[in-house]
Amino acid sequence: MKLGKVIGRVWADRKVKQLHSCRLHIIQPMTSNLRKKGKPLVVADPQNIAGSNDIVVYVTSTDATQAFDSGFAPVNASVVELVDSIY
């Protein structure tokens, strides 16, 4: 699991059926100290839980596909949780 901040949204006129009701966000990866880490990436949000400037937990690879109710979607990264606070 990784931390990231939602910095934008991606709009797509055409999507595969698994992504029809799924938001796509641009995420800036962050350290646990909330410092930028690496380059931004596009992340699927299958539960539509994240909004602008939210800090989220996201997963990549096979875990990202399993974040969908169907158990599969053609994605490389998915939001799985919102972060309330970091101690």
Uncertain runs are none
The CATH architecture assignment turns out to be Beta Barrel
Write out the CATH superfamily name. Answer: EutN/Ccml
Q: Would you report the number of β strands?
A: 5
Provide the CATH top-level class.
Mainly Beta
Strand order of the largest sheet: 3-2-1-4-5
Biggest pleated sheet: 5 strands, antiparallel
Average pLDDT across residues?
A: 93
Into which percent range does the helicity of residues fall? under 10%
Shape, please? globular
Provide the CATH topology. Answer: OB fold (Dihydrolipoamide Acetyltransferase, E2P)
> Helix- and strand-based class?
mainly beta
- The tally of helices reads 1
- Count of the separate structural domains: 1
Question: What is the alpha-carbon Rg in Å?
Answer: 12 Å
The ordered string of helix (H) and strand (E) elements is EEEEHE
How big a fraction of the residues is strand? 35-45%
CA-CA gap between termini: 17 Å
Task: Describe it.
The chain is mostly beta strands and 87 residues long. The protein has a single domain, classed as EutN/Ccml (OB fold (Dihydrolipoamide Acetyltransferase, E2P), Beta Barrel), CATH 2.40.50. It is 5% helix and 39% strand. Strands 3-2-1-4-5 form a 5-stranded antiparallel sheet. The longest helix is centred in the C-terminal third of the chain and has 4 residues, at 62-65. The mean pLDDT is 93.
